[in-house]
Amino acid sequence: MLLAGETVISREQDRINDPKLGEKGLSGSSLIEQTRDIYRKATGVDPSAIDPASRHGRLLRVQMDAIVEVMDANQTTINAKGTGFKGFIPAVFARLVNEAFARRAKGEADVKATGPPDRIRNRKARPDAWETTIIKSKLLAPNWPRDQAYSAAAETDGRPAFRVMVPQYYDETCLACHGSPKGEVDITGYPKEGAKQDELGGVISIILYR
């Protein structure tokens, strides 16, 4: 669901950053509907059909509520006229949603946007020791199947947990900020990494506490 939401934010960047356009039509209710549609097409599952009493259904609804919360809280930024680049990019959206999710999940689960250590711009997104090991030994391995997640039981913060690492790859839209020439400052003020399309650029790290 988080990936689906990021997809919507990515494809709406031109509208979000249009200084002549005010209301973008990207309220929480509008964006979650688009997000659910992408989720349905990607998984073949209607999220509303998942039992809300199950852990899966409960946490999925928590995440959808977090997405709505973030979008509604950022309407002033998104709809500002006279301002071009708003800074409301997929990475920022994901971080805000994950923070809202953590508050709502109340210690039952955590979701974090991280990635290879040399591709992390926000210090808060740096991978922990376990994530770093999995990224280097599994997700970056030449024979690792594209889009395949890694999962394992792994004690975290002294608690038994089940952890999942979902790889994300650079696409053409990502390269505007993360591509070439390496070192050139992008629109967000960071130096480009010189990344290439289809390289591992990020990871959605999920922790389900037992």
- Overall geometry comes to globular
Instruction: Measure the end-to-end span.
Output: 22 Å
Question: Which bin fits the share of residues in helices?
Answer: 40-55%
Largest sheet: 4 strands, antiparallel
**Beta-strand segment tally:** 4
Task: Please indicate the percent range of residues in DSSP E strands (runs of 2 or more).
Answer: 5-15%
The radius of gyration computed from the alpha-carbon positions, rounded to a whole number of angstroms, is 17 Å
Low-pLDDT runs of 5+ residues are none
What is the mean predicted local confidence, pLDDT?
A: 96
Counting DSSP H or I runs of 4 or more residues, the number of helices is 8
Structural class: alpha+beta
H-E order: HHHHHHEHEEHE
What does this molecule look like?
There is one protein chain. Strands 1-4-3-2 form a 4-stranded antiparallel sheet. Helix 3 packs antiparallel against helix 4 (55-73) and helix 4 crosses helix 6. The model has no long low-confidence stretch (mean pLDDT 96). Helices cover 40% and strands 14% of the residues. It is of the alpha+beta class and 210 residues long. The protein has helices spanning 2-11, 13-16, 28-43, 55-73, 75-78, 90-105, 129-139, 175-178, and strands at 109-114, 150-153, 161-169, 200-209. The protein has 8 helices and 4 strands. A hairpin with a 7-residue loop joins strand 2 and strand 3.
